[in-house]
Amino acid sequence: MCPYVVYPENPYFVAKYKNMNWIKTGLLILAIGVSNMLCSQEKTFTRQDSLRGSITLERAWWDLTYYHLDIKVNPEEKTIGGANTVQYKVLKPAQVMQIDLQPPMSISKVVQEGQELGVIRDGNVYYLKLEKDQVVNAINELTIYYSGRPKISRQPPWDGGLTWSADDNGNPFIATACQGDGASLWWPCKDHMYDEPDSMLISVNVPTGLTDISNGRYRGAEELKDGTTTFHWFVNSPISNYVVNINVGDYVHFGEVYEGEKGNLDCDYYVLRNNFDKAKIHFKEVPQMMEAFEHWFGPYPFYEDGFKLVEVPYLGMEHQSSVTYGNGYQPGYLGMDLSGSGWGLKFDYLIIHESGHEWFANNITYKDIADMWVHEGFTTYSENLFLDYHYGKEASADYVIGLRKNIQNDRPIIGQYNVNHEGSGDMYYKGANILHTIRQLIDDDEKWRMILRGLNKEFYHQTVTTQQVENYVSQKSDMDLQPVFDQYLRTTKIPKLDYHFNKNKLCYRWTNAVEGFDMRVKVKVDGEEVWIQPTASEKFKKKRFKKPIREVVVDRNFYVE
User: Fold this and answer.
1) Cβ distance 403 to 432 under 8 Å?
2) Quick one: which of 35, 39, 16 has its CA closest to 27?
């Protein structure tokens, strides 16, 4: 997901007023201030937070295998109605299933093998009383019928829900975005990240003349006698609930075939009719993105489903194989360079960042939103690696170091587990700088590249914990990086290198550091590059040089004070 910036509700504000940088800069400053104020407030958790954020008994006994989401979108009434067929494998005997759907959406009935089931509602949770015996290893299915007027998103993608808009020609322009708030804002599902269906069919009925673009491969469309058309999309890969999406509009299509590491990859682009010409030029950045990311991270993870870039009436988001885009066909983030280095205007932030999520978010997915940094830290770092691939190492360093000015250190990056609680927004910029620092510690760019590629291979199409990721990086780097991860992810303290020198003797230690923090760091002593390894101790370590020391400079690539 994109870092938080407030802009007016008119979805075309940025495109129409892209030269009004003073407005965007002011809004960014306002957004950071509001965000800091909200993040500093103490969070109180409710029973509903626990039901949403934990693997409850009513979730644990069954494993998702398949969804068929079959819905009708009514733009005039701003409603959705239809059904979701849930196929699942029984892991252990139980007779009560938890399904999530948030009001004002509601379930009308649930049917299994022709029999209507009893349903009890508890806030955002529906408990389904299953009549059929649930036998271990059996593959069963049931169909949930539902409808309602889903929550309208006021600031998508940060405020979840649906955006009901219109294009410049007056045609309906509709999209979903729901990370954090949950997919259950608009469709009934197992709304927890730990379990993903192995595949999914998405069928969306819209007024004829409009097109729905969703995840996966296009399976065809049916024109009905009632003046509507149903579009079918099939997802061949495991998919997280929050990246399932519908995008409805007067779309036109163009595409290309990218010759990638695993063969030919279909890249399809769906944009508003009036933007077709500019999109054909602007989206030439996609092959550049794919080339850089396959180099650093390994093959695109969803060759079976293809890659799509889809225009939407909000900024954009990482919907799997259906990445959404609304950055106004301009470089940077809403025309701004978030790093202040100049390099942030060498690429379209939304194309690069949201596509980077195909590797870190959609391929490797957090089990608990408390570990959201695995998505956002690595993906913000991917912007840096895009620059590294196309413009060189110094350009990429300028960019990621420039992002440090956005770090607030307001609270830890890792949130609280089992209550649907994400950590600080620092997971973006600080997360990227943690990874940039670890790259320096490894001090072998090819080894670092193999670690990034190895992560995507080891955890291919899996949900993970941060501990799994941390352990993998430590193991493959042949370093105990746990104190480094603890320092940067679990505290707000930035390690401070405390040093002094006298004649030819350099004395140094870490302060403002967790116990056991002994990260080595590169410094220049009178222009000579040397490694030192301070410890978080009251005692200074010492290093002697042949000549009296005049100047010590810490390598800027390490995120330290």
Assistant:
1) yes
2) 35
State the CB neighbour count (10 A cutoff) for residue 13. Answer: 17
- Report pLDDT digits (tens) over 5-42: 543 333 333 333 333 343 344 444 344 444 444 444 56
The pair of three-digit structure tokens given for residue 413, joined into one six-digit string: 């990056």
Separation of alpha carbons 174 and 97, rounded Å: 32
Classify domain 47-249 by CATH number.
2.60.40.1730
Q: Which residues 6+ apart lie within 8 Å of 393 measured at CB?
A: none
Is residue 427 a contact partner of residue 382, using CB atoms and an 8 Å limit?
no
**Strand 246-249's sheet: what is its strand order?**
161-166, 172-177, 246-249, 211-214
Tally: H helices and E strands in the chain:
13, 28
Question: Could you tell me if 100 and 193 are in contact, meaning their C-beta atoms sit under 8 angstroms apart?
Answer: no
226-281 pLDDT per residue, tens: 999 999 999 999 999 999 999 999 999 999 999 999 999 999 999 999 999 999 99
Alpha-carbon span 347 to 362, nearest angstrom: 22
* Distance, CA of 78 to CA of 325 (rounded, Å): 22
- Give a three-class secondary structure readout of 460-501: CCEEECHHHHHHHHHHHHCCCCHHHHHHHHHCCCCCEEEEEE
SS3 call for 315 = coil
Count CA atoms within 13 Å of residue 340 on its CB side. Answer: 8
The 3-state DSSP class for residue 257 equals: strand
Q: What tokens does 269 get?
A: 């682009």
Copy the structure tokens of residue 420.
Answer: 């649907």
DSSP state letter for 141: E
Q: What whole-number distance in Å separates Cα of residue 20 and Cα of residue 206?
A: 36
- Its pTM stands at 0.93
d(CA 192, CA 100) in angstroms, rounded, equals: 9
**Token output for 144:** 């949930």
Identify the sign of the CA torsion 443, 447, 451, 452.
positive
Residue ranges of the chain that CATH labels 2.60.40.1730: 47-249
What CA–CA distance (Å, rounded) separates 52 from 194?
12
| Segments of the chain assigned to CATH 1.10.390.10 | 13-42+331-490
Residue 391 belongs to what H/E stretch? Answer: helix 373-391
The backbone torsions φ and ψ at residue 450, rounded to the nearest 5 degrees and listed phi first, read -65, -30
Please state, in angstroms and as integers, the Cα–Cα distance from residue 555 to each residue in 156, 520, 527, following that order: 39, 11, 11
- CATH placement of domain 13-42+331-490: 1.10.390.10
Q: Contact 176/77 with Cβ under 8 angstroms? A: no
Least confident of 41-55, 108-122, 333-347: 41-55
Q: How far, in Å, CA of 155 to CA of 36, rounded?
A: 17
